[in-house]
Amino acid sequence: GENVEQHPSTLSVQEGDSAVIKCTYSDSASNYFPWYKQELGKRPQLIIDIRSNVGEKKDQRIAVTLNKTAKHFSLHITETQPEDSAVYFCAASGDTGANSKLTFGKGITLSVRP
Amino acid sequence: NAGVTQTPKFRILKIGQSMTLQCTQDMNHNYMYWYRQDPGMGLKLIYYSVGAGITDKGEVPNGYNVSRSTTEDFPLRLELAAPSQTSVYFCASRKPGQIYEQYFGPGTRLTVT
Predict the structure, then answer these.
(1) Rounded CA separation B15/B10 (Å)
(2) Which residues of chain A neighbour B107 with C-beta distances below 8 Å?
């Protein structure tokens, strides 16, 4: 089955700096790669996602890049703010039926220092 | 829409007791999922369903059972609670087709002592 690895496990940045979080996946059949943000005590919420036919996607201060050949994808957060402090999970899946199952990485705790 | 709702929010069980975690969604989503989240371990899939009457095992199904008699409801049953089932449980749902986002419920924090 799919295996998603996420590194580093913790990341601390100064407010205003950029943060990059990387994930690797193992199953070349995976074609959907979401990033979820989870604040303390809250549910995971989708912040951005990318499909395998796209190399990069951007939404305001966040962007995701995908390298299918190397089987890795990254989350980029620019101009970080204290409210970006949270746990971020990457995941991978196929699209339909049994392949719609998401396999999550273990998460990274991002701390933004004011 | 209320989205995905879960009850209860918190529960403490004694070893060997049973309980059902409820999950309901009002978005007419065919696909539903149950995850458990342990500290530092991400989310692990327990069971999932692609429609009413259809369920299948995920990565960590032992000790759990599910049913899916309606599109809206996807309850998770713990038959003989064990300390290893202490966790936060999330239910999620999504549409089939081109929109892949999974919507999560608020979670149930379960402690087995």
Answers:
(1) 16
(2) 43
